[in-house]
Write a structure and sequence with these properties.
The protein is an alpha+beta fold. The chain is built from 16 helices and eight strands.
């Protein structure tokens, strides 16, 4: 039997993207400081609005800063020490869902379905094949901190299995996309073959090792928590939709005065042009696409439902010349504005 479940997440929140649960960051910071990391590493983090406000989610680059500084300045194996200290309490609603799962493998099932409640960085899938179950993390490294984070994640997952079952369940094989940088602490933890330069980061278990009950298996509570997590997940996506509505409203209201720039819109939303571009990209569009879609929708509505002249409609939709509006409208609809008014 072969089964593959793949979830990729791309969402918007009110913070810079990608994001991660602030609990994970604070634990990494506390551990690093206790081991002697200089406090100056965190000076640039003081300006973070999310950290200042005690937000549940923070920009994940802040976590990567900690991982990279710890890797440079502290004893080898920080990724193992961080992964081992992370427990289910650091994962919000997932915590109780993991603890009340019916079997160990459901820890991975929940992760696949609800990792967006922890971070939106990367994608995760679960594969079953020939008696083995693999959890695969596809999170490509654009900086050293991502590689460390991948190792932390796999250590954490192995640790969570032991926490919820009370048994030491170790993988048969561990893989990482990056090259080895402190392999001994990692090998000592997993006690199995660790392979680097692989297509993905992964943990491979015997399927039978995962088909064991958890310590607090409770179907009723587990069902309730799944409903809660689905609500949280929908809430995150609702925030994304709300942001898109804000962007569209700002552009639409600005068009009579001319097409607004991405700098103007991002300033109004309290974010950076780079972040706004990334958020739009996650929706599969550019800022230019967004503007043109609104121009098209607005112009069609005005032609259909008003008696305004074409010159007025051109002005209302951000065109300085009616001729430019005419060309754009024909490109959108295949008809001139006048012909469209006669025969929509």
């Amino acid at each position: 039997m072969e089964m593959t479940i793949l979830i990729s997440w791309s969402i918007f929140t009110e913070i810079d993207m990608p994001f991660v649960s602030s609990s994970i960051y604070h634990k990494a910071k506390q551990l690093a400081l206790s081991e002697g990391l200089s406090t100056t590493v965190f000076d640039t983090h003081l300006a973070s609005n999310e950290l200042q406000s005690g937000a549940k989610y923070i920009p994940i680059d802040l976590l990567f800063d900690v991982y990279e500084a710890a890797d440079d300045q502290l004893a080898p194996g920080f990724e193992v020490r961080q992964g081992k200290q992370l427990d289910s309490d650091d994962y919000g609603t997932l915590r109780m869902s993991w603890k009340t799962s019916w079997q160990a493998r459901e820890v991975f099932d929940r992760l696949v379905r609800f990792m967006v409640l922890v971070t939106d960085h990367g994608s995760v899938k679960l594969e079953e094949k020939q008696g083995y179950t693999s959890i695969i993390l596809d999170r490509r490294a654009h900086r050293r901190g991502v590689e460390i984070a991948n190792e932390v994640s796999l250590v954490m997952l192995t640790n969570i299995l032991q926490e919820v079952t009370g048994q030491l369940i170790l993988p048969m094989e561990v893989g990482f996309h990056h090259s080895s940088f402190s392999s001994k602490p990692v090998v000592d933890f997993f006690k199995c073959e660790v392979i680097y330069n692989q297509p993905y980061a992964s943990l491979k278990f015997k399927t039978t090792d995962l088909n064991i009950p958890t310590l607090k298996a409770d179907r009723t509570i587990n069902t309730y928590l799944l409903e809660r997590m689905n609500e949280e997940k929908r809430g995150i996506h609702a925030e994304a939709d709300q942001l898109m509505k804000q962007i569209q409203r700002l552009i639409e209201e600005s068009l009579p005065s001319g097409i607004p720039s991405i700098v103007q819109v991002s300033d109004y939303l309290g974010t950076s042009p780079r972040t706004l571009k990334r958020r739009l990209s996650e929706k599969g569009m550019t800022f230019r696409d967004c503007v043109q879609n609104i121009q098209q929708e607005t112009s069609i509505d005005l032609i259909r439902n008003s008696t305004r002249s074409m010159a007025e409609i051109a002005f209302q939709t951000g065109f300085s010349e009616q001729s430019a509006f005419n060309r754009a409208f024909k490109r959108w609809t295949g008809k001139s504005p006048a012909d469209y008014r006669k025969n929509p």
